[in-house]
Specification:
Elements (H helix, E strand, L loop, with lengths): L7 E5 L6 H12 L3 E3 H5 E2 L3 E2 L2 H12 L4 E4 L14 E5 L3 H18 L11 H4 L5 H20 L5 E4 L1
Parallel strand pairs: 1-5, 1-6, 2-5, 6-7
Antiparallel strand pairs: 3-4
Helix pairs in contact: 4-6
Length: 160
Amino acid sequence: MKMDNPRKIWIVGPPGSGKTTLGKELSSSKKIDCYCLDELRWKLNWEQVSDTDFEKSIKVIIDKPEWIIDGYYPGLDEYFNIADEIVYIKMPLIVLLTRICKRSYKRIKGNIEICNGNTENWKFFFSKNGIFIYTIKQYFLFKVLFQKWRNRSFRLSLRK
């Protein structure tokens, strides 16, 4: 049963859309722990956690009575029915690219850790697997995913 005061919230959207910011705001106002999927997915030196271990970590979270999850990886929408609400943050591509450039500039200049000891650099930022190209790909992927999700039974809200 869906609630007017959701206690299981999943926030999705491309890089730079504001998932982490919204997750922190909701966590603070609702007093619910927020879990960033990037923290669960990446080990030191950008090594991925195995798919099995990643899924185990997610199952531990979704078995809790309340949670906020920030992020999305392919295949995780099979768990969306457990959430009281899925929040999809939609932003224009130019806004996403501007945000990730500003964010990465600050991170690289300050050598700021992103997750689990990992940092960014400009060489990787602009590489074929870097966040700049990844953001463009994710922008178009989420347009397709949103159309797919609109026809599903879970509670999906759009935030612009």
